[in-house]
Amino acid sequence: MSQLRNKTGLTLVELVMVIVIVGILTSVSSMYIKQVIDLWSFLTFRNEVVAQGRLALTRMGREVRQVKDNSSISIADASRLEFTDVNDNVIDYRLFGGNLMRNSNILAKGVSGLIFCYYDIYNNPVCAPECGCDVSSGELSDIYRIKIKFDVASGGQSKHLEMQSFPRNITN
Length: 172
Hints:
Layout: H1 2-6, H2 12-64, E1 73-77, E2 80-84, E3 90-96, E4 99-102, E5 105-109, E6 111-119, E7 145-154, E8 157-165
Antiparallel strand pairs: 1-2, 2-3, 3-4, 4-5, 6-7, 7-8
């Protein structure tokens, strides 16, 4: 009988206590893992939105450089730019809802505050106040440099993007 009492083993109470402690440790560590996964997915989504905005801005700058000549800009106001490029394509940039539009195609989503600013060869704003007015038809030929600004938003955060472009075929 004394041999049975000297054998060591786990009792049911000890086994239940180990399971409870492991369960508590697992649930605590899963909260940290969930936070890391949420942060990773948020940053990934934000980076995709910013990358899409930068790609749109780069394309806009490249296409604005291809303006045909001084008379090919048909609309130039604070929130819209329409022109004809060297290949006789009409390109129209504007904000519709939360989308940056190029003609009827979505160029970028989650965009707010699209602003175009127009400057003459002497770096003076073509219209006053700067970036907040429509360029009259008489002043369209004075445009030498175009600044494009907008914000992209994701998950409550926004990123301001800005670019300047000098149309190649405009002479003053």
